[in-house]
Prior knowledge:
By secondary structure, the chain is mainly beta. It has a single domain, classed as Sandwich (Jelly Rolls), CATH 2.60.120. The chain contains 1 helix and 18 strands. The chain has one helix spanning 9-23; strands at 44-49, 68-69, 75-78, 98-101, 109-118, 124-125, 130-142, 153-160, 165-173, 182-184, 187-189, 193-198, 207-215, 224-232, 247-249, 259-261, 268-269, 275-276. The strands form 3 sheets. Strands 3, 4, 6, 7, 10, 11, 12, 14, 15 and 16 form a 10-stranded antiparallel β-sheet that branches. It has a 6-stranded antiparallel β-sheet with strand order 2-1-5-13-8-9, with no helix packed on it. It is globular and about 45 Å long.
Amino acid sequence: MPLLPRTPNALRIALAAILVGVTVPALAIFQNGGFEAGSFASWTLGGGTNPGLSPITPPFTGANVVINPGAAGPATIVGNAPDPRAPDLTLPRVGSQTAKINDESGGSLVTTLTQVDTVSNADIDPIDGVPHIRFSFAPVVEDPGHSPHEQPYFYVALKNTTTNTVVFEQFAYSGQPGVTYKTAGSWKYLDFQTVDVPLPMSAIGQQIELTVIAADCSLGGHGGYVYVDGFGSANVPPPAGALTDPPKLVPALSTGLLVLLGGFLGLMAWGSRRQMV
């Protein structure tokens, strides 16, 4: 539904740019969504150990994730520093801080990151008139060549807890066929994937739960982690050095349309109901 009157294109574009700059808050829906506090304030860290995915036969989704109870796994806030296991990644992704969930040390550890917040009018994008949730993630996982259910993995999901529906989820294990990982020695990684999830207007006032999970291999000797940043409703800027950040469409889950932006990857199979970029 157009939000601007019928005006010449140049004026319409200028008005849209002004509206974006004025009415869309920096990160809106999630508190400390860019980790610029230099901490995990407003977030909940959890974890335990990874006994392996169950059932053990691919394809896998979040329903296959099993976490044995235990202490919260490792998590750090990183700034401008290279990652030797993912040399093409530019850190931080947004602002001056990016979160690193789990780490490279192994030990069958799992780290979870969660936050629940309420969708509000501040999350409405004036360009299309509906609320959005946007963020970026980049997984880095070692590939020991174990059976698929024993490999390191990552999982990212958004759930509307008011309606008990999953509005976005992505899962992949290290070495998963069809995933166009980059390789650095025994490590595999993806460029930052910038996600844009439009929500219906009925989501205003409803609660959204964000979950990020990163897991070592279940046998204990190999690590896996994921960088996350830019959680909110505002557009996440292109990665540093990128000329453009073009939108790419992925098939909708049963609960709504998902728009996946950015990245420099080809098609990746995310399971029977989705594609990867």
